[in-house]
UniProtKB/TrEMBL annotation:
It comes from Alexandrium monilatum. It comes from the Eukaryota. The lineage of its organism: Eukaryota, Sar, Alveolata, Dinophyceae, Gonyaulacales. This is Pseudouridine synthase RsuA/RluA-like domain-containing protein. GO terms for molecular function: pseudouridine synthase activity; RNA binding. InterPro entries: PPR_rpt (IPR002885), PsdUridine_synth_cat_dom_sf (IPR020103), PsdUridine_synth_RsuA/RluA (IPR006145), RluA_PseudoU_synthase (IPR050188), TPR-like_helical_dom_sf (IPR011990). Belongs to the pseudouridine synthase RluA family.
Amino acid sequence: ALERSSVWGEALAGLAQMPRRGLRSDEVTCGAVMSACQKELRWATSAGLLAQMRWQALEPDVVSLDAMLGASEQRFWQAGRPTPSSSQQGRRWRGAARLLAQMGRHALRPEVVTYNSAVDACRKGRRWILAVQLLEGAPQGGIRPDAATCDGALAACLEHGHWRLALGMLRKAEELLSVRGLRTLVWAFASLALAGAPALKQLAAEVAQEAPALSLQELARQTWSFAALGALELGLAGALERELQARLRELRLRSSRESLAVAASSATQALWAFNFAGLGGEDLAAAAGTALRAIGRTLDEAGAGVGGGAPSRDAPGALGSPDGEPPRDTPLVLADFSDRWVLQKPSGWQVDDGVSESETALALSDFLRPAMPARQWPLLYDTQHRRGFLHRLDVPSSGLILLARTYEAYFDLQMQLSMGVLVRDYTVLCRGWWPPALRKVSARVLRVHAAAGSHPATVSPRGKPSRTGVKALAHVMRGGAALGLMAVRIGTGRTHQIRLHSAFTGHPVVHDGLYASSAAYVADSRWCRRNFLHRHRLAFGDAAAVRRQVLAPLPGELLAALRRLRPRDAASAQALRRCLSGTGPGDWAACAELAPSTADARAQEPARQTDRGSTG
C-alpha cells in the first residue's frame, strides 16, 4: 500500500508512524517507500532512507537499491533545475557504480532498467570505458541487455570519437540483443553514417513489419535514423507515418511531465526526419500540431498564472536608461508577439538554454528574469525545455534570438523549426573570395568533447547531417587580403555549423578564434573587433499563424569593419553599399548574388572537391 501511494509524503508519514503503533520497519517497507519517493522524483529522501536502513542494520534489497539508482538518475529532470556540471555528472556515475557494486556484494541482481541508468550515468560522466565494460559484463551478471543498454554504450563511444570501437560493438550486438532489439542497429548505423550497411534493407523491412508494436519514441527514432541514412523510402515512411499518427492521437495528456516532454520531442524529431528526407508528411504534421498544442496547453495550465493576450508592458527592451535608449551592448526585445519575443543578442552574451558554453559570458536569461518572474513565466526557468529559447547563437556572434514565453508557443515554434518553416538568415564575412558557384555545403558535423580552447565540433563522415546554404554577395579586399561577404541560411542547426562549414571550405569566418589559424586570427584582430557572423533575419508564424519577419541591421563594430574594405567590382560595390546603409541582405532567398565568372574557375575547383567530399 505504501508503494502504491501516489503521494510520497503519505508513504513517508506511514513509515514514521510504524514505531508508534508497535510495528518495526523492515527491508520490504523501506523499499516500498523508496519506490514511492522515486516516482515523485524525491531522490534526496530516497538517499536518507537508504542511510537510515544502514543505521537500523537492515540489508537493502533489490527494490530499495533499484529505487535509489532510479531516483538519482531522475534528479536532474526536475523542471527548472540547471543542467548538471561536469563535477555533478562525475558524482552520478560514481554513485551508480557504488550502488551496482553494493548489489553484487548482497548477491542481488539489478533490473535491466537500473543497469541502463548506470550505463547512461557513465556516458554522461564521460566514462565511456566503464560504460562499455558494463555492457560486456552484463551477461556474466545474469542481465540480458536490451536496446537501451547498447544505445548507452554506443553513444558513450561515439560522443568521444571512438567510432572504431563502436563498430566492433555492433558486430557483437547480435549476440547481446534479441531479434526485436536489433532495431538499435539502425540508430547505430545512422550515428556512424553507415548508409551502405548491407543489413539496412533487411532492417527496414523488419521495422516496417514491427511498426504497429513500437512506441512513439521508438517510431520517431527509427524515422530519424533512416532519414539520416538517406534510406527513408516511401514504403517504410508510410508505415512509420501511419503509426506515428496513431500514437499521437492516443496521447494521454494526464501523463507525467517527463512523458509529455518525450512525446513532444518525438513528434518534432519525426517531423524533422520527414522534412529532411523531402517527404510531405502533411497528415503527420496535422496530427503532430494537434498533439503539440495540447501538450503545450497542459504544461501552461500546470504553471501558475501563465500570461498571454495583449503585448507585454514589462518587455525589458528599454531597461537601463531614463530616456528609453538601451545602454550599448545590452540585449533588446525587438518584437513582442505576446507569447513569443524576438531578442537582439549582442556579442559576448550567452543563450543559456541549459548547456553552458562559457563560464564568463553574460546570460540572456538573467537579462530576462526581471520582466519574466517564475510564477508567471515558468518556461524561462525550465532547462529541460531550453528556457524557451528556440535556437542558440555562439557567444562571440550577434543577432536575433526567438524566445517562446509559453509552452504552447514553444512547441508551435519547435514544430516550425523541424519543418523548415522557421527561417534563420545570416550575414557573414569570410577570408578569401567565396566561389559564387558554391551555394550549398552539406558536410556532416560531429560534436566532440574537447578541452577548453580546442574545436568543439569537426567535419566527419560520422557526424550528423548538416546543410548550409550560401550566396556570395561581394568580393572585397583589405590591403592585399581577399575577403568574401555572403548571406547564409542554415537548414540544420549543428554546433558552430556556419563557422565550421566556412573553415572546411577554406574560407574561415573573419576573426574566428576557434576555426581559423592563429595567424589569421591575430591579423583580423587588428581591424575587426569580433567574429563577423550576425543573424540578421528571422521569419516564422505567430500564434494566429500569421507570417512574421524581423530584421536586425549589422551592429556598429561590424559596420566599422566593413568601412575599411574596398570592393572588387561594381556588383560587389553595390552589395557593400547596401550593407553599410543598414538595409542588409534581407531575405536569403531573394537577395542578389554574384554571378560565377571564368576568372573564378580556379577558386571554384576546391569548392567542387568539397562538394564531392561532403555527405549529407
